[in-house]
Amino acid sequence: MDDEGKVIVKSIGKAMQFWRKLEGLDQKEFSDKIGTSRSYVAKLENGHVGVSLGRIAEIADALGVSPYTLMHGMPDNDELDILLDLYADRELEITKSEMETLFCQRFINGSVPAEYFEHILCIERGGSYRCANGKKKK
Question: Which of 1, 19, 55, 130 has its CA 20 to 30 A from that of 27?
């Protein structure tokens, strides 16, 4: 595998780890869920082994996200901090589905500020919704 392939495999693995942790599963619990060993999950998450598209689909299903989300890999650190802050904000009550939408947005437009993610959240909620700034929008 060339260097670019290794970067992609590692990014997919980190995305798997992110969503696994968001689900509150440790590696052993997750490995049981997908019918493999904990050490294999660790190797996947660290990018030490490749993963087929079929296996990505199985893993995504077990995590309750789309394969598309896993294949996009991880956002950069600044974007990840923004996303985690939004998700942790109990007043916003961001659902997993909304988090997945926000998680994938960064690849469409590159690195974006918090306000962009807040705007996407508002659009995602449609109609009368609560935006990230805490104000009710119509």
Answer: 1
* Radius of gyration, CA atoms only, the chain: 16
Q: Which pLDDT tens digits describe the chain residue by residue (138 residues)?
A: 788 888 889 999 999 999 999 999 999 999 999 999 999 999 999 999 988 999 999 999 999 999 999 998 888 788 888 888 888 888 888 999 999 988 887 655 556 678 878 888 888 888 545 554 555 444
Which overall architecture, per CATH, does domain 3-71 show? Orthogonal Bundle (1.10)
> Count of H helices and E strands in the chain?
8, 2
Token pair 């599963």 in the structure block, residue: 25
Which of 105, 114, 113 shows the shortest CA–CA distance to 133?
114
